[in-house]
Amino acid sequence: MSHDHDHSHEHDDEHSHEHGHSHEHGHGHDNHFEPIEARVRAMETILVDKGLVDPTAIDVIVDTYQNKVGPRNGARVVAKSWVDPDYAQWLNDDATAAIESLDYTGRQGEHMLAVFNTAGTHNVVVCTLCSCYPWPVLGLPPVWYKSPPYRSRVVIEPRTVLAEFGLELPESTQVRVWDSTAELRYLVIPERPDGTDGWSEEQLAELVTRDSMIGTGVALDPLAVSA
């Protein structure tokens, strides 16, 4: 399945990044918090200071959205695309609608584009000016996603950055870097691992990690999971 998108925010492997296009995110680029995250943190501080909320309880909630609810939504999208060719085509043609059909929608995920990894192409997502990120399918963005080194280096030297994440790609694999904006967020669809014939969507979803949907990783080895 070919998924070559002619998009102004795509950057091919090892090409220098010239950010001459308009990158209107609809919010200030403080390179720290999305507006919704800033409001949440401000409210958290007030509630904790007033003794109305236990900081430990907040940590549990944050962990839930960062590591369970958010990425698990995206994992289910990926798993469904692996077992349902019609859904995969819909995801390719109109990711926003396909994702909304599973009731995963909301702020920071209104306009989505799915980019599919293949044997010869690996996709990775960044937001070079701030931290635009698809919250409804991936939850809270990891700290490194918002860091200036990642935002700049992954465009200039993607293979080196991926190697630092432990992802060594063959030289024959093309790396495509996709630059998110407030108007368009990306979801990487990793390749389905070998040895998963007959697996249910629920089982397959367990192989899909947050990093594999950003592109800094791949789906888990089924042998390692089932061992």
What does this structure look like?
This protein has 227 residues and is an alpha/beta fold. It has one domain (10-16, 30-226): Alpha-Beta Complex (Nitrile Hydratase, Chain A). 43% of the residues lie in helices and 11% in strands. The protein is built from eleven helices and five strands; from the N terminus they run βααααββααααββααα. It has helices at 35-49, 55-83, 85-93, 95-100, 135-138, 143-146, 148-156, 158-164, 201-205, 210-214, 222-226; strands spanning 10-12, 112-116, 121-126, 174-179, 185-189. The strands form two sheets. Strands 1-4-3 form a three-stranded mixed beta sheet, covered by helices on one side. Strands 2-5 form a two-stranded parallel sheet. Helix 7 (148-156) packs across helix 8. The longest helix has 29 residues, at 55-83. It is globular, with a radius of gyration of 18 Å. Mean pLDDT is 80; it is low at 1-8 and 14-32.
The overall pLDDT average reads 80
SS elements, strand count: 5
Span between N and C termini? 32 Å
Sheet with most strands: 3 strands, mixed
Strand content: 5-15%
Helix content: 40-55%
Query: What is the highest CATH level, the class?
Result: Alpha Beta
> Which fold name corresponds to the CATH topology?
Nitrile Hydratase, Chain A
Order of helices and strands: EHHHHEEHHHHEEHHH
Shape: globular
